[in-house]
Specification:
This protein is α+β, with helices and mostly antiparallel strands and about 160 residues long. About 25% of the residues lie in helices and about 35% in strands. It contains 4 helices and 6 strands, in the order H-E-E-E-E-H-H-E-H-E. Strand 3 and strand 4 form a beta hairpin. It is elongated. It starts with 5 loop residues before the first helix and ends with a strand. The model has no long low-confidence stretch (mean pLDDT about 90).
């Protein structure tokens, strides 16, 4: 249900869309339980708070993008971070499951209009599309120093707002 806080509603819609993917193929989450698709203010890993593997949807330290489209509408893009975290495979064999998770999430948001976001935002704005902006496929510092596989991307939720 829409709260009227558009950026928050976008985050909730992304969370629900990822929960509905039933991501599988990663040890310890086959499939990934819905409860392990976290919605948080900012990505920060704390082993006491989160069970690996998981996906976190959060704010990203980037501005929203705003563009006037005509005399009655603005196009606004809400920036959201999607992060996959799993135990690192220090044997360094590529684990197909985490890459499949990333690909599934990309396919869900790359130029699409996920129904979960439409539902979460309600009638307050019109979803135009979502855009996938990849970040590093693997965070080398997290891998080397925290024994974590961390992979992230920005999802832009592009809406039309009536003035």
């Amino acid at each position: 249900m829409a709260t009227g806080t558009h950026h928050y509603d976008a985050l909730v819609g992304i969370q629900k869309a990822i929960q509905n993917l039933n991501l599988d193929g990663v040890l310890g989450a086959d499939p990934l339980p819905s409860a392990r698709v976290y919605l948080r203010e900012f990505f920060k890993f704390d082993a006491a708070l989160y069970t690996l593997p998981f996906v976190m949807v959060s704010l990203v330290p980037m501005p929203e993008l705003r563009e006037q489209t005509d005399s009655r509408h603005n196009q606004v893009s809400y920036t959201c971070l999607v992060t996959i975290a799993a135990p690192a495979n220090q044997g360094q064999e590529i684990i197909q499951g985490t890459l499949r998770w990333r690909q599934s999430i990309e396919e869900t948001f790359d130029g699409e209009q996920p129904q979960e976001i439409i539902d979460a935002m309600g009638d307050t704005v019109k979803l135009r599309r979502t855009e996938w902006q990849p970040l590093d496929v693997i965070d080398l510092e997290a891998f080397a120093h925290k024994d974590l596989f961390v992979s992230a991307a920005v999802v832009l939720v592009v809406v039309w707002k009536t003035r």
